[in-house]
């Protein structure tokens, strides 16, 4: 039985004497033309003196009523996406990717040349990193004290390039010689005190389960139940997800890569080899630095650039996958194509950072296929823009983007994605309110 309805912002019976309670509604169906039928098992007969307001109850228990559909997600509207982009510091927030699009559909649109490994380009990236890192150490040695922060910033960014080289090696996208890849990857990670194989195993799981609750090995939202269960650690968690978040990869590095219990039995031997290499570097390299330059020299030449590297490691990772509109989902709701294309952020940085870090922030194609070498990421991104551009999240690095992440993206919420600490525990969230006051807000 068809039901014709009028548009309204309220839900009520035609008699206007008896409101419809949503808890009594058994079914809401739409004909696709703005017509809605509401059914429930039993409804008392309503009488009115006005014939136009009479509702006759038949065996089908169908009632004429005014109904309004559930409001669409803000991401469904171009106007709302534009508003959110400006609010969060994005250049573009992509519209939701349809459920029927698969990773294969996306990958097949990429040109085959972006998957090609070029040993010459790989060698060029090594030369860029070695040269820029050597220049950074020279600047640290020669710079007066007031220019040391600039020298550390350069050197920390340069050594991040070593990480990107090892990152490509771990994905088997650096060299055609796979044994050579493992050697270069191990050596590239040594100045960072990163064990190559443990990181590779953890990072592969990040790619396989990007933004999947409990499973993604990169940034996860804070769980309110766990947050409430450790009152003594709340302040540390708030600082960690707030002011100290650009260095929180240090905690991830320590907790996730040196504990053998976190790895599968078939991974243990390779993990032990990598740990042995790291400990050997520390046992030989650190004493040599201290012997030549003293403890202050160790801090100047190794510790400060290492902290600079972790600034980029933390910042890049959280910008890639953290935003108020990007959800973390349970495994039964998770969609690979949506997580990798729709849930990864492309962010442009100043050109000197892009060069020293080998375009690692051209990150969406890397999540479509980790087998794309870093020197082919820009060509792959151009292809994605042509074929899937309306679904992409894109930004240029700015203070508003950072402020959004540091002051909003804290506690997991299924409906809102994130709830800020100052909403959950306002009496303890002074670090967050402080950031909201002092951080610039320009995009």
From TrEMBL:
Pfam families according to UniProt: FA_desaturase (PF00487)
Swiss-Prot/TrEMBL GO biological process terms: lipid metabolic process
Source organism superkingdom: Eukaryota
Gene Ontology CC: membrane
Main location: membrane
Coiled coil: none
Record localization: Membrane
Homology family: Belongs to the fatty acid desaturase type 1 family.
This protein's name: Omega-6 fatty acid desaturase, chloroplastic
Gene this protein is translated from: FAD6C
